């Protein structure tokens, strides 16, 4: 939570992200407040924190370990998300913490445990709103070990959508946002420490680009756009 609410500096963010790995098991992260329990709701905050720390590989690994374990578990629903489970792989979540040793009390369709849905949209696809309804927005993808991603959502202003795909020379980002809006598009470098070649809608960018921490940021108005980064 300290990371998500921005009360720690970059050095502490990196340290917290690394230390959280000590709670990991082969099937998810044990909640320190609930020994032996894996709480998908709490893990949802953890994956956002790793994204803020710019550690997408950790996020994807935790999603595969935890949510992936459940979605492929024949003893679960194989279609929804679970409230929590024990690190031994049984569904006795919170057995001795208010659930009266009754596994049937555990929810196997728990909306609060669906953190990857928003996190993958906002950090992997990279699309999120900055002000109400998306009058201002941003796109800042984090690739991890993925080769492509696509996502979007709708507000009363209209549809917001984005997708990217890696290729042998870099990547292509396409996005469409309502007209009358404006946003920052933050593009990761293709090669570390080397400013990339960027074209948006066929125009080579030579001005109006802010470079910082291995990314290039440009301001873009609403509409449909295509960015090619090499």
From TrEMBL:
GO terms for molecular function: catalytic activity. Residues 137-193 form the Alpha-L-rhamnosidase C-terminal domain. It comes from the Eukaryota. Pfam families: Bac_rhamnosid_C. GO terms for biological process: carbohydrate metabolic process. SUPFAM superfamilies: Six-hairpin glycosidases (SSF48208). This is Alpha-L-rhamnosidase C-terminal domain-containing protein. It comes from Penicillium nordicum.
